[in-house]
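Can you give me the bound-state structure? Components:
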Amino acid sequence: MAYLDERKLKILQAIIRNYLETGEPVGSRTISKFTDLNLSSATIRNEMADLEEMGYIVQPHTSAGRIPSDKGYRLYVDTMMETREQEVDEMKALLLEKADKMENLLEQVTKLLAANTNYTAMVTTPMYRSRKVKFLQLTEVDDTQILAIIVIEGNIVKNKMIATSVPVEKEVILKLNILLNTYLQGLDLSEINLDVIQQIKMQSEGFGSIVSDILDAIAQAISEEDKVQVYTSGTTNMLKYPELGDNQNVSQLLYALEEKKEITELMKKDAGDNTEIQVYIGNETTVESMKDCSVVTATYELTDGVYGKIGIVGPKRMDYEKVVSTLKTIRTQLDEIYKK
Amino acid sequence: MAYLDERKLKILQAIIRNYLETGEPVGSRTISKFTDLNLSSATIRNEMADLEEMGYIVQPHTSAGRIPSDKGYRLYVDTMMETREQEVDEMKALLLEKADKMENLLEQVTKLLAANTNYTAMVTTPMYRSRKVKFLQLTEVDDTQILAIIVIEGNIVKNKMIATSVPVEKEVILKLNILLNTYLQGLDLSEINLDVIQQIKMQSEGFGSIVSDILDAIAQAISEEDKVQVYTSGTTNMLKYPELGDNQNVSQLLYALEEKKEITELMKKDAGDNTEIQVYIGNETTVESMKDCSVVTATYELTDGVYGKIGIVGPKRMDYEKVVSTLKTIRTQLDEIYKK
DNA sequence: TGTTAGCACTCGATTCATTGGAGTGCTAAT
DNA sequence: ATTAGCACTCCAATGAATCGAGTGCTAACA
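Here's the bound-state model for the whole set.
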């Protein structure tokens, strides 16, 4: 068994670089000229045979050039990739301009990512490690409806209409407001247990049913906030890369991107750990229809405990350097915008 | 010039029906057997030549069968279509189950439409003919932030955080609450003019800047609500219909569906009038990338003055009967769910 | 006069063989 | 260890041949 020496590494790198650019299998002659090794194509051929035997490259068929295998890509992104600096100015400007509302901002980010990379971009809404009730307010809208407003840590505002069978007096609402805030402020959702609920009900003097409704609303509002949403953009970019298979395959891929079920799972994965960038190559994505794709994700963090993910899906031969640096840039921008 | 008599109509109808089913150009022999007219293929050929001359059908190339032209389709949906009843039970159940929140509901509706028809579904969020302020409330969140809650006619709740440079006293907030509600309740956005604003500011005794901020927030919240959103689902269904062109064309179509700019315009069109169903065939859609598609839309109305659109995009040879009846059903369901 | 049988013709789609070229693996020479 | 050279493989592109569905037209017929 051959050993992966310096020269083989260089050749492998050259093959991958070339393939990333052209998308065509690359032959020995190309490498012979492409590198500064001054080796003849024949020598390259021998080395390539070794590299293939070691599993780093693959031949689509006899008498074609080589393309990187998943193992080859993996080696590349892990050890051989060169970081590239990114021009950030226009992005920053663009983001700031649109940053009026969180949802809007995320959608803009998604579009920006897709437009910049020519791949498909995915961005999740923030998830919360802690979900503390910051503030709570009931308001009478009309005789049969009460509006409950819940502000969660991180200034997330949720509102919920509650229908009442009987009109509720103003004073009662005032009382309930104080009561609820006293008991619930600062509590995490997980801390609102039966015990607390009982105590509130005990003190609500006959308005227990309304309290129940309200607590239901709170639970619902908060848990709903827990549902991670994924924005996507640039899905049609996938049609540009013929190596993803022409009809059936791309169709399934686009379906997965539209359906979002699988990619939501994918985006949740490793969301907690603090590795900067995650790269999934081919089957590492665990999504069947993405077996010919690579996925690169990054975690953004708004404030402590509020984080989400941004990511790119593209063909395996994507421009990893660019994608990684773009993700890093955007992540930083998100941070900065939020810090203000 | 020939005249469109009974027999020609029957033949045209047969051609269209057949083409809707198969997607293949249909020849004279097929029609000869397909209909109960007992005519030879030769006779049919003569009639078909007439129909072509009149512009109802078209030959993709010499020595191919005929396919309907836009004019042919138009005649078909206007006069020859047979209405079909739709099984509604499962839809109703499905919708009710998910109907907890408006946005959610609409998304479900979109998916349901797409799944039922195998085409692409589009649903807009509601638009408002009148946008009256129903109710308004300021609340202190912490020292530098006030939360403004605005309830618009139709129980649409908007909220907006307002940052203040100096802490604002509780009493002031109370006063502002009363002041704002007194002046603004029941007003339409269009009625909140400089005159009204001046009056409020005059009475706000030195808190004019906060009032400005609040009014800005209201304006922004309401106008934001005016932004029509379009949900889409089943876009990948478009890949199933080879007649939409294989690569370039479908790609542009999918892009338009993802971008949503053009289709939002399309959906807004005729949204006010009370025609039940609108059908746009080919270039009637005015969207370039949809020139080989048809669009069928219906208007739903939640309450007086709050309405939106649901629609289907598919190939010109879509199953119009089914699409129309599905849209009608869903529209009715939406009505009923909301009435409760 | 409307209908039909028959026939020559058109034209896209499919199939098949041919060719060219890019690339390989191996061997022998340096 | 490297390289030149050569036979070999196989895909992709090209083009000729064929097939068949469908047409238009003419002439015959009821």
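A couple of observations. The interface with chain B takes residues 100-101, 134-135, 137, 139, 141, 145, 147, 149, 151, 155, 157, 159, 161, 220, 224, 233-236, 239-240, 247, 250-251, 254-255, 258 of chain A (CB under 8 Å). The domain at 94-127+228-338 of chain A is CATH 3.30.450.40 (Beta-Lactamase).
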